């Protein structure tokens, strides 16, 4: 890899982490995410990068192991306007959502220029491979060291981690679904021996189905979820409609607890 100087984290960016419903979230913007990723690649240590949206927050509310893993991650960013709006309702300052999924193609162009290599892990068989093909066709010079689907047993997990280690990829993108991907990364990150392991959810399906070509206005307004809901209402209606109401109830409950205990 060829990493230019100038990707050092400044202390102001590094220390902006806020507590929202018991989850510590880094108060960063999309460009800050890119700089943090490049800084992690450059220092060569093992780093775990994760995200939260309204669905993640609801899961973390009742899953203490997942909540602990998020707390111990090197970086947790808000990937969804629901988290930003919800945090503001709770009096927590998050400047903006991080549009990581929509920005991934642009990130990959910059990765190619810096000779940062990738490994794609997750989704159904063939999806990560298709996403890699789209990325490498769209971005000459981007190096994808390998791909692997996400349908493997817990017993096979160590072999998958060893495969990734042998690839010597700089950044591993893991899309296994929340919270399994975070738990798998926490258990296997050292074995993969890559500077950055980045949980990315359904990004491979997003890429392979042309989602990255959606109008920028949807991204700017934070309305990609509406597009996804109408694209797959049968599987997503509960998450986006019922789930968002449950998320608001979690915020209300969290505020009630804070008021009773005098915290905040």
UniProtKB/TrEMBL annotation:
Alphabetized GO MF terms: hexosyltransferase activity
Electron transport is among the record's keywords: no
Domain of life of the source: Bacteria
Pfam families: Glyco_tran_WecG
UniProt-listed InterPro entries: WecG_TagA_CpsF (IPR004629)
This protein's UniProt keywords: Glycosyltransferase, Transferase
PANTHER family: PTHR34136, UDP-N-ACETYL-D-MANNOSAMINURONIC ACID TRANSFERASE
Protein name: Glycosyl transferase
Organism, as annotated: candidate division TA06 bacterium DG_24
